[in-house]
Amino acid sequence: MNESNRSWHERAAQLKIDGRALIGGKRVDAIDGAHFDCISPVDGRKLADVARCAEKDIDAAVASARGAFEDRRWAGTAPAARKRILIRFAELLLENRDELALTETLDMGKPIAASRATDVNAAANTLRWYGEAIDKVYDEIAPTAENSLALITREPVGVVGAIVPWNYPMLMAAWKIAPALATGNSVVLKPSEKSPLTALRLGELALAAGLPEGVLNVVPGYGHEAGQALALHNDVDCIAFTGSTRVGKQIMQYSGQTNLKRAWTELGGKSPLIVCADVAYLDRAVDAAIGSIFYNQGESCNAPSRLLIERPIKDMFLERALARVADYAPGDPLEARTTMGALVDDVQLQTVMRYIDAGVSEGARLLVGGDRARVDSGGFYVQPTIFDEVRNDMSIAREEIFGPVLSVLAFDDVAEAVRTANATPYGLQASIWTRDISKAHKVARALRAGTVHVNQYDEDDITVPFGGYKQSGNGRDKSLHALDKYTELKTTWIRLD
Ligand code: NAP
Ligand code: MG
């Protein structure tokens, strides 16, 4: 064990975790006292008891958020005041970087280096960016006739329910709460039962930054209990959901069954990465294909899980790709050099292993991986896995696996590649690699996805919207466009003569 390894393990042993909910500015147990075990995928051990919130707790959290909204303690403040608090909130994330990163890694299994450098920074940057933006957004005056004035203004929708997944727990929470708070809403945040801990800390840090009590409430619990109660609640004005397409469809139904709350969904993907024979940056393409599917253990909504390669270069490309797979050998997530950690839990591990079995039995060729790893650790690790000779009708090409499994498909001409790329219910992200600029533009236009990359894959910035076409959802997180989700558009007519 080297020094940094020892120190993260030591810090982990000393970490104090409070699994209670945050409602009305107070840490509280679930009303009926229920809790669940929060298990670390790093070694399968219990980290903490976490409040198992359900309908009554959601009622309390929504009442707290509603009260805070109605008395205008936050909605009524000047954007410049909200800015100061959001920027302070962002600074507090950075000041607590090590603790947040360690908590995230222990709770969901991603490598500590990624949690420290990427997740904490990106979450803090999101809060800061919306804080900085919000006092620079102007309303409109319509070009009406001279005898009247029509103001077009944006107002907060009211109480926002945010339901987020476990793969980037802190960042997905920040993508929701930053624009929702910046625009003056009150929020009830429901993190995933699989990784609830950093969301609870975010709630505390928001209070420390000066956010008034009751404006941000955090209620951990199961999806079918706390999540469903929040999405069905008649006093919630907007539900902002990130998660699977299956649950996203339920969220839309809950809205229709109740008060027609706005329902924004950011859902799954089966993203294609297309490499043409005239690719200019071959090694970069190899890095992107391998790095983007194996980053975060393959648990990324936009991971390019289908690699489409033009047949003449396929073998050469795969040879280079295979040489890179060792860079993603599963390791101890608390070891600073580890690039691939543990899957979030045993359920996810079993799901991934079932897809690997399906790939083999459907006739794809297993090139590398295909097995569990680090079984003795007690945690949930899978080898980086690549299947060649995949057809687009196989389950490993059609369904989102959400693990480190890459499906390789050959194509003979680019029109066929586009048809295959689009032959999916999803439309989150896509990528085309070619040196031919006309081809790149034509393909980028033809790909039905919320984000298309040309000669790159994972460029990312808070300034651009992120979301999907088709069954990858209807909302856009990030950028100024996300403000639309959390604001009502009001027209005020004023008679002048
Ligand atoms: P999930 O099972 O759909 O869960 C997402 C959230 O919804 C969790 O907090 C979950 O709670 C909750 N939930 C489950 N059932 C519910 C119900 N009936 N009513 C209300 N809430 C319910 O998804 P996941 O497995 O956590 O996350 C992985 C998925 O998220 C993948 O499909 C991935 O592609 C997608 N994702 C999309 C984006 C994007 O921006 N498009 C980003 C990241 C992830 P519990 O976990 O506590 O049950
Ligand atoms: Mg966990």
UniProtKB/TrEMBL annotation:
InterPro entries: Ald_DH/histidinol_DH (IPR016161), Ald_DH_C (IPR016163), Ald_DH_CS_CYS (IPR016160), Ald_DH_N (IPR016162), Aldehyde_DH_dom (IPR015590). Residues 34-491 form the Aldehyde dehydrogenase domain. The keyword Hydrolase does not apply. One of its GO terms (molecular function) is aldehyde dehydrogenase [NAD(P)+] activity. Keywords: Oxidoreductase. Belongs to the aldehyde dehydrogenase family. This is Aldehyde dehydrogenase.
